[in-house]
Amino acid sequence: MKKIDKYIASSVLWSFLVVTVVLLGLDFALTFIEQIKKVNDNYTIQSLLQVISLRLPGRLAEYIPIASLIGTLMGLGTLAATSELTVMRAAGMPIWRIGFAACQPIVLVSLLGMGISEFVAPVAAQKANLIEKFQDQKNDTFSLTGGVWLKADNNFVYIDAADREGKLYGIQIFSPENQELTHVKNAASAQHIEGSLWQLNTVTETTFYPDHIETTSIDRSEWRVSIMPEHLFLASQEPDSLSLSQLMNYQQYLRQQHLDASQYELEFWITALRPIASLALVLVALSSVFGPLRSSTMGGRIFSGVLIGLAFQNALNLFGRMSVAIDFPPAIGVSIPIAICLLAGLVLMRRRG
User: Can you give the pLDDT at residue 143?
Assistant: First the structure.
């Protein structure tokens, strides 16, 4: 029986790998076509390829649930087409045992995906974001989009990008008094010295007087801000480029400051529940292979898997975003489509076997 389990698991695993390579290849090609218009003297074709490649680990982790679904449909569908599943069932092998064997490689790749999401994808994605931001720095411009705005010590601060060593890039500090803007500081970069002390580099300071404006430029300037360096780094990143531990850390900080943490909480639960989502979709695939897709062609199974995967992903996005919009716990919003797939898969599996 163990040999049969290994045979089923290897069939599902190889199909999963094929689907994953195809999905990543399509993602790479489509992203390249979409982003090629950004190429210029500062943002070269090599930089674009590097950015896309650095984001592939994150895309791999995101594709694991859908690849698990289609891979299971393909792997077990191949066995069904050659009547091997029929022989297994005739020999007394229950459906739950076939399902258990099919789930084993999916559990392993899901755990691998969690490791990638925690240790590999965030580092790579944050480096990719930094490369994109540097094209604006080379032009000595501030994009004022894609970065982060913060309120710190009665000042409004814009940070264009940050790296994992705590260095900030493209900083603008707006200092108002009595609801009137009095000072603006532009700095190419900033690095943490100690405590609340930072050093601003390549600084341009503009002061607004009632009758005139003065602008001065200096190489270095001190900047004291009460926000911790790690929080400045996390604030400058998109939620989907953070690891689970970083998302948890920044959520706690935002709650302490009585700020909205729903976007980070939503991304946390989408990532944390991804292995359960993979297993839920595998159950749906199993019930389909032993049910309506038993005699379907390979193309039909792949098409059905794509439709189910798209429906699941759209439902996940819909319920997740709706939970944020209506101030509902994101954990419940993300869990709803996963729970529906689990229940549907279990009920259909029970009917089949």
Answer: 45
